[in-house]
Design brief:
The chain has about 240 residues and is α+β, with helices and mostly antiparallel strands. It is about 60% helix and about 10% strand. A 5-stranded mixed sheet has the order 1-3-2-4-5, sandwiched between helices. About 35% of the residues are buried.
Length: about 240
């Protein structure tokens, strides 16, 4: 009797172990299936995002070959300016060092590539950074990029506001000599918003994390004062 009872207990233990092993396998394969579903869903999501993400952009006349900025001048040294029209520090830079940059360009010592990024949309209720950058593309099309840029900084709206309306941007453009109808149509249509997205994305890929960022021949300068910029350009000539 004792022997049969022991055999029954042993058999019960074996059955329990087999059942436990089956449950473990079911749990394992259920987990694997769930992970695969998530991976497939993630892949589909990324594929959808990739197809929806704009891959084409319309660059305005005067843009660099890679479409990341507007080029002024043809000097041997390249000054890259990464600025956001909503950025107060950029306005200060333009007021303090903008004339020096223009002088270096006019003297044939440097060319400037202005990258109007849209990093600060969160500080506007109407994505002003994007709208103003796109409008600058319209100004470039009309041959008044620098003049328009100067006025955008001079009339920079406060942060956390709606920013300048399209109508106000159009008035500024007309004030610097742009054809109001042509420029206005370009601004209202958002013709260069895709370009703004491209400029901003490429700046981020290049490690630009804040504005203003100033580079001379590809090297960021830490002293973007008039003297600092002149010194960097002079050193680049050597």
């Amino acid at each position: 009797m004792s022997s049969r009872k022991g055999q029954k207990n042993a058999a019960r233990v074996v059955r329990q172990q087999i059942a436990q092993e089956k449950r473990r396998k079911r749990t394992f394969w259920t987990t694997i299936t769930a992970v695969l579903v998530l991976l497939i869903a993630g892949g589909i999501g990324w594929a959808v995002y990739s197809t929806q993400k704009p891959t084409n952009f319309t660059a305005p006349p005067g843009a660099s070959s890679d479409g990341t900025g507007i080029v002024e001048g043809s000097g041997p040294v390249t000054i890259d300016l990464y600025e956001d029209y909503q950025c107060p520090a950029c306005k200060h830079f333009q007021e303090a060092s903008g004339p020096t940059v223009k002088q270096l360009v006019s003297e044939g010592k440097a060319k400037v590539v202005f990258h109007p990024v849209a990093f600060l949309n969160r500080f506007s209720t109407t994505e002003y950074s994007t709208r103003s950058s796109a409008a600058s593309g319209c100004a470039a099309k009309g041959g008044k990029f620098t003049e328009f840029t100067d006025q955008l900084f001079a009339k920079q709206p406060p942060e956390n506001s709606a920013g300048l309306s399209n109508a106000e941007l159009i008035d500024i453009g007309a004030g610097v000599g742009l054809n109001k109808d042509d420029f206005g149509s370009c601004v209202n249509a958002g013709t260069y918003k895709s370009w703004t997205g491209h400029v901003t994305e490429e700046a981020s890929k290049d490690g630009i994390t804040g504005t203003p960022t100033i580079k001379v021949n590809g090297y960021e300068i830490k002293d973007p004062t008039p003297d600092g910029i002149k010194a960097a350009v002079a050193a680049a000539h050597k």
